[in-house]
Design goal:
Helix content is 29%, strand content 22%. It has 140 residues and is α/β, with parallel strands linked by helices. It has one domain: Transcription Regulator spoIIAA (2-Layer Sandwich), CATH 3.30.750. A 6-stranded mixed β-sheet has the order 1-2-3-6-8-7, covered by helices on one side. Strands 4-5 form a two-stranded antiparallel sheet. The protein starts with a helix and ends in a 14-residue tail after the last strand. The mean pLDDT is 93.
Length: 140
Amino acid sequence: MAKMERFVEENHFDTISFLFNNCYFYGKYGICGTRGWVSIGDGTEDEKVQFREVQRLEVSIKAALDAGLEPVVFLHYPPVYGLNSNYDILDVLYRYGIKKCFYGHIHGYSQKNAITGMHDGVEYIMISSDYLKFAPYRVM
């Protein structure tokens, strides 16, 4: 985070902010999120990253709730893809009653396995640029 903040400051990008252990207010909504994770192997490094991402998501959601806002979640990696699920991330979504989850990462042919629409009480919306044909998507 310090490296990214230093970069935007050095380059005078004064309109860029990072979602990192926080939320952003938008009307009655709290924009929450983190990168998420897709476990590639069985290593302890995957476990460390997964644990960290789950914690970041929970901190972000709690920040919205503490401010009296409805959390809306943004992730890079989808928590559900085809027959695979990131149960640790899903547990956080379910525990806090998240209604909308936006995600990216899925491109090209692999989009056929993307989960979009309602799934277990959460609306999943894929916003990968090529999936949207590089047209802006009105989130709220």
